[in-house]
Amino acid sequence: MHPMVKPALRRGWRDLNTVQFGMTPAHAMVLGPVDTATGSFLTLLDGTRGLPLLRDEGRRMGLPDGHVDALVDRLAGSGLLDDATGGGPAADALRKKRTTWDRLRPDLASLTLSTSGPGDGARRLAARRSPRVQVRGAGRVGVVLASLLAGAGVGEVEVRDGGCVEPWDVAPGGLSAESVGERRDEAARRAVRAAMPDRPPRARARGGGRTRGTGTEEPGMSLVVLTPRDGLGVHAPDPAAAEPLIASGTPHLYAGVVEGTGVVGPLVLPGDTGCAGCLDRGRADRDPAWPRMVAQWRSGRQRQVQACDLSLAASVAGLAAGHALAFLDGELPSSAAARWETSVPRFNWHARPLWPHPDCSCGAADRGKEDHTSTGTEPHATMAGQQPYAARPSGTWRAHV
Length: 401
Prior knowledge:
By secondary structure, the protein is α/β, with parallel strands linked by helices. It has 2 domains: 3-126, no CATH class; 128-203 and 210-375, Rossmann fold (3-Layer(aba) Sandwich), CATH 3.40.50. Helices cover 37% and strands 14% of the residues. It contains 15 helices and 12 strands. The protein has a 7-stranded mixed beta sheet with strand order 7-6-8-9-10-11-12. Strands 2-3-4 form a 3-stranded antiparallel beta sheet, with no helix packed on it. Helix 6 (105-114) crosses helix 7. The two termini are 22 Å apart. Residues 204-216 and 372-401 have low confidence and may be disordered.
């Protein structure tokens, strides 16, 4: 282990005996009391020394035996310590790709803030190379979102769409002006490839092959992100279109822009959280005219160019990518139970809760009742192969250590 105080946190002394790590309430922590020798020793926790050398340095500085180990344990237990060599074999392999590692260092620094154990950030970063993500929709939101995921180290990101690139599909970080007239899926693939920090791992064998429009889903997909170019598909997602995803247990996230309003969510964990069917039924309960309105909106073909300005599209793509990465990293983003919305020109994001509907065939309402009855608390969403998600405190100062 090569201990280092998390370098993402700026350090400052509140007084002669109290040091603060970090500036923002979400991650800042205060350590005290700290004597002068210990304060000087903290500068040596930069990841360049192992514990034996740190013990020697501590003795030379007059620190008593056992003090260095106690301090390291104290910092590690408080979530302030990282391990410059931690993360396991996968992280070691990634470090050897120096150019790739340097590209991902800001992402690693961010991950160290949302993890507590030394080396956990590097472990999560390396684990991102395994998931397979599919983005359905190659417009201003979808391609930018896919490029963000690829640039953040997700191993395999696929974009699916039909037709050819139109001038209004072009966006910084997404489809280029040179791609106008090309097939959308091919142009999107090129954009995603350009965003990758390195070549992705070799694709694994995929039993059954890819399927299109057959009512079945390709196995092994970690997440599907639905980014329809037609805003109706995110404002009023068709429950029938999501049935194969529900049946296969595939987590999926909606994101897009409709009439100058950006939408992120819901993140659907089949059988655990509300889905497009729950959303549709809930709206019909509140507004008897809803089914009639949706039928009119879906009839005929939309010929106008969508109201999707670049700043709004970029905001939606960024937020959706963040929620997708949080899920892939093992966290439960707030879109699992809500739809986040914002509109131009004020860009005031707000959440609209989405409750599982008792009449929906997805079964999330029944699962919620079972969890609430058995535990007496709000249910935690759990997907196969993952640990139950635990709520993380935010927006408050952490306790003194």
